[in-house]
């Protein structure tokens, strides 16, 4: 009876142990299933996070790609604009060079024309100088041409006067006093007419004779050769007493002073 009780108790203990083991196994299985489910949940979360991370990365990469594309497009636009600007600069430079060439050609032509004008001007000035010098020399040479022409008539009358008084006429007149007187009077009249004609020629050319007798002595117009005592005369001291050679003025300028004696 006691053994039966012990057997029953051992069986109950064993069964309890088995139950405990089963419970433990169930617990372990539950734990495993829970851990498995939790691990599956964690895996899903991680996958989701990885998927989100991949999406964010792809978006970032997309943005970066867009930025790179934009940068490349901007660089390409800048390159195009710079190339177009360079082309415009080249065109402007070519236009400027063409304009400069045209301007230089015009200036070269102007220089040639100015040089020709300068040479012509120099030639004209040289011709003018030579002509002026020649005219000046001619003026000096022929300045008295008019005056000389007026004196030709005077010279002709002097020749006629000399021809009227020959040795034969003089010898013939010596034997006849009346004929001599007639000859001398005719000669005197001819000389007076010649002198009058000479004075007219002088006056015509601005040459005037002056005789300063009884005028006050002027050193600018008179040349005193000697003194004449004033005692016994009614003349004033310092006046011209006698003229030995008359003076002449040419257009108001004294060209020969009158030679005279002065009262003192």
Give an overview of the whole structure.
With 264 residues, the chain is mainly alpha-helical. Among the domains are: 145-205; 206-264, Head domain of nucleotide exchange factor GrpE (Nucleotide Exchange Factor Grpe, Chain A, domain 2), CATH 2.30.22.10. The protein is built from four helices and six strands. It has helices spanning 2-141, 145-164, 167-174, 177-204, and strands at 207-210, 222-228, 240-245, 247-250, 253-256, 258-263. The strands form two sheets. A three-stranded antiparallel sheet has the order 1-4-5. Strands 2-6-3 form a three-stranded mixed sheet, with no helix packed on it. Strand 4 and strand 5 (253-256) form a beta hairpin. The N and C termini lie far apart (221 Å).
